[in-house]
Specification:
Blueprint (H helix, E strand, L loop, with lengths): L6 E10 L2 E11 L4 E5 L6 H9 L6 E6 L2 E4 L12 E5 L10 H6 L6 H14 L15 H13 L5 E5 L7 H18 L2 E6 L2 H7 L2 E6 L2 E6 L1 H6 L4 H7 L3 E8 L2 E4 L2 E4 L8 E6 L4 E3 L18 E10 L3 E8 L5 E7 L9 E6 L5 E4 L3
Parallel strand pairs: 3-8, 3-9, 6-7, 7-8
Antiparallel strand pairs: 1-2, 1-4, 4-5, 9-10, 11-12, 11-14, 12-13, 14-20, 15-19, 16-17, 16-19, 17-18
Helix pairs in contact: 4-5
Length: 360
């Protein structure tokens, strides 16, 4: 028999001032997995987290932990009895307690058992040598590691993390994210992470819950959300986009790169063909020689370089297309800095394009 999910959220609603901040939100998180609520500020992510933690109460909906009801609109288990750990961006360490005392806070059992748990966790987050230090003596990254150890010390079945890495220097974030993920997997804790950073969600999550205006608009593995976005806004959340606009005629849409198949859409429908800059290809072999109509990636189109910039790992080149004057961007690995005014032929990966009805 398949065990119930560690966290099961069903049809949550929450309103403030007549506005639905959380609107029919449902999802589940199995034990040992990381789910990420991803979305812009104000979309309802943190409110959802607070309801699960028990510090806010839903207007409708139910929440289960390991198949057991922890709250609905009538029944409510207090936050301290939910076996839910919390971790926030400000770390919230007690300044008057040592590192060891912070991690031990809330633990039960004998003194030796608590000490053993504290030492084990601090060693696993590489903070054992700071066991007797106080928070003010630690860097931001070190405080983050202590906060993680404290959140995991009572062995919560679920850990809720609200923008936990946003206060860290950018150079530290990836290392601490990876260390955190490894420890969470070792502990087998179900994790619900809230963030507005797509890179963070892609790096840490087993499943992403893309949230917009209080609703989950798409959910799935990071690969699926990136490669099969539900709409243009979902695609744009993960990267810059180029937009080719057109109108359907006989299941085809005319673009600078030739006709695109757009089946299932009635004639006259305005569409947006979306392609990411890394999938707009500069045809170096054909530079200055004109198009080859048998090209694998469809009809090449000519554009004039407007500007180019080196971004560190890649170069970004902006083109004005001869066909309609539209502006398209291409990213090229390493250093590539063509001069403004230079004409070049471009191609697109048709298998990497998304077609959506145009937004009103």
């Amino acid at each position: 028999m398949t065990p119930p999910p560690r966290l099961d959220v069903q049809n949550l609603h929450r309103q403030f001032g007549g506005r639905a901040v959380v609107d029919d939100v449902s999802f589940d998180v199995p034990a040992g997995q990381v789910a990420c609520l991803l979305g812009q500020s104000g979309c309802g992510k943190s409110t959802t987290l607070r309801i699960i933690a028990g510090v806010d109460m839903q207007d409708q909906g139910r929440i289960f932990v390991d198949g057991n009801l922890i709250c609905d609109t009538v029944f409510r288990i207090p936050p301290e009895r939910r076996s839910v750990g919390l971790m926030f961006q400000d770390f919230a360490l007690f300044p008057h307690l040592s590192v060891a005392e912070n991690v031990a806070f809330g633990l039960t059992g004998s003194r030796s058992d608590k000490r053993a748990r504290v030492v084990d966790l601090l060693d696993r987050v590489h903070m054992g040598r700071h066991i007797d230090s106080y928070p003010h003596a630690l860097s931001g990254g070190e405080q983050q590691r202590v906060a993680l150890a404290r959140a995991l010390a009572p062995r919560p079945r679920i850990l809720l993390m609200d923008e936990p890495f946003s206060g860290l220097d950018e150079r530290l974030r990836d290392d601490i994210r990876d260390e955190t993920l490894a420890l969470l997997k070792e502990e087998g804790t179900a994790v619900l992470l809230v963030t507005h950073e797509p890179h963070e969600a892609m790096r840490m999550a087993d499943q992403i819950l893309l949230m917009r205006s209080g609703r989950i608009v798409q959910r799935g593995a990071p690969y699926n959300l990136y490669n099969a976005p539900v709409d243009r806004a979902a695609a744009a959340f993960f990267s810059d986009l180029n937009i080719l606009r057109g109108r359907v005629r006989g299941a085809l849409t005319d673009t600078p790169f030739g006709d695109f198949l757009t089946p299932g859409l009635p004639d006259g429908t305005e569409v947006e063909i979306v392609i990411r800059p890394q999938h707009l290809k500069i045809d170096f072999d054909r530079a200055g020689r004109g198009p080859n109509p048998t090209a694998q990636d469809g009809t090449p189109a000519r554009g004039t370089v407007m500007r180019s910039r080196f971004m560190g790992r890649e170069s970004l080149v902006e083109f004005r297309m001869d066909y309609d004057g539209s502006i398209l961007k291409a990213t090229v690995p390493n250093v590539f800095m063509p001069k403004p005014g230079m004409a070049m032929w471009l191609m697109i990966r048709r298998d990497r394009c998304f077609v959506f009805p145009a937004r009103a």
